[in-house]
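Shipment paperwork, digital attachment
Item: protein structure file
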Amino acid sequence: MDQQNLIQAEGLRRRYGPTLAVDGLDLSLRKGEILGLLGPNGAGKSTTMKMLTGCLAPSAGQVRICGYDMQMQPEAAKRHLGYMPEVPPLYPELSVEEMLGFAARLHGMARAQRGAAVERAIASCGLQDMRRRLVSNLSKGYQQRVGLAQAIIHNPDVIVLDEPTIGLDPIQIREIRTLIAELGREHSVLLSSHILPEIQAVCDRVMIVAGGRVVYADTVAEAARARFDSVVIGLQRPPSLDMLTALADVLRVEPLDAHRFRLHCRTDTSAREAWAAAAVRHDWGLFELHPERRTLEDVFVELTAGDRPATPEHDSKEQAA
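Attachment content:
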């Protein structure tokens, strides 16, 4: 995959009075990538999205879209950007076709290009049967599709989606996730969410935000890797905790139940074979021994458990409006 960064944000900060909503956040989105911005409510996700898309000026820091500085060259930067905020910017009195034609004009597309652009967006977002319906008469799921369609009408390099499935039923959520995955084949996508399955379903890489800061950034697959510094052992006739702690390379023992224990050990340990031999030698009845795997949910909870922002993010949104 081409490693060119289409979004490059450095040192983003945003204050709302005394409240620091985003604190020194760095973010990059590579060409051909779907990046998930994950965090609890109030973590600073929507504020970050608004700064990345030029809807909100940062208190400090810089955003570049395809090499263009968002503050110094906003029009050039936004030509490469499609944005769907949490509440899509739709006009209920327009039909789907009219809404998308209007969006094409807003993006400065020439009259000769608009028809083809509208058709492409309608086809990409599965709106063929809804094209002449008023936006006000569409279900929430189809309104989200129209929101996606207006974001891609000008065929941008980057699509930014803020909580795209909020308020949808399970079937609509599945449909929108499938659509996002399909869009990711032709565009780079930045997706914000506080819903773990959403990130796991469609994203290549995840950034976890807590308290306005990035606390984790890696691939979704890496987030679920085996943790070799944490090993689970199951014993039918377990010895005392002191005997388990005395095993080679074990730093600490954590009982999980009467027969299973978590051994916290050195990450480079090769002592698991010796533990198995000790269990056989002492007749402990070994029935389980494996590195502990963590899920994205484990990582998320571990890194955000203490995150309780002073001001809810929705309050910040109101101040930004």
